[in-house]
Amino acid sequence: MKIEDYIIQELTINEQEIALGFVTYLQVNEMDLIKDNGYWKNKIYYLVKYKNECVCFIAIKDPDEIDNHWTVWSADMETDFLGESIIEQELKETAWKHVDLCGACGSCEGGRRKSIFGKTFEKVCGCTFRFDNPDSQDLLFMKKMVELRKKEIQYKETI
Fold first, then answer.
1. pLDDT in tens for each of the 159 residues of the chain?
2. I need a labelling partner for 105 at 20 to 30 A (CA). Which of 26, 68, 122, 128 fits?
3. Residue 87 neighbours by CB distance under 10 Å
4. Looking at the DSSP assignment, which residues form a beta bridge with residue 35?
5. Beta-carbon contacts of residue 82 (< 8 Å; ≥ 6 apart)
6. Helix axes 136-158, 89-97, angle to 10 degrees
């Protein structure tokens, strides 16, 4: 099954609209959506990559998180691509609400201090942002997050 099939099968109509909008945006922007067949093979878990570099992760109906119908995590993003003047104030505020702080799961060793769009956060997880059951406002920033990560990957190719 494709991710779109899982979205239609597992999510409500309102969630489908947002999730399908995000997936379409990813595909238009040359992202590969790869179902994980390793650690998360028994879950609906997708790695999103651009030029073989991780951009974000998508989980649908993770049985370990019953309150979350779907979740999007960003890859670790460098502070240089999270500068204060890069995005509009409204998107900054959405981003700040979704900074992924360490939850002691073991993946980030306690998190680290990070400046994100002009605001400093302590104990930021290796996945810089996390969106549980994202809404249409979240979708606007998730698209910007993907755009910034894509630019970061392209920049790394030039150095």
1. 999 999 999 999 999 999 999 999 999 999 999 999 888 888 999 999 999 999 999 999 999 899 999 999 999 888 777 887 678 899 999 999 999 998 777 677 778 899 999 999 999 988 899 999 999 999 999 999 999 999 999 998 887
2. 26
3. 19
4. 46
5. 114, 115, 116, 117, 128, 148
6. 100
Cα torsion 136, 137, 140, 141 to 10°: value is: -130
Longest Cα separation, the chain: 44
Residues 141, 95: Cα–Cα separation, whole Å: 7
Residues 59 and 43: beta-carbon distance below 8 Å: yes
- pTM confidence score: 0.92
Helix (H, G, I), strand (E, B) or coil at 128: strand
* Tokens 């974000």 sit on residue: 56
CA torsion through residues 94, 140, 156, 59, sign: positive
Residue 71 bridge partners (DSSP)? 59, 132
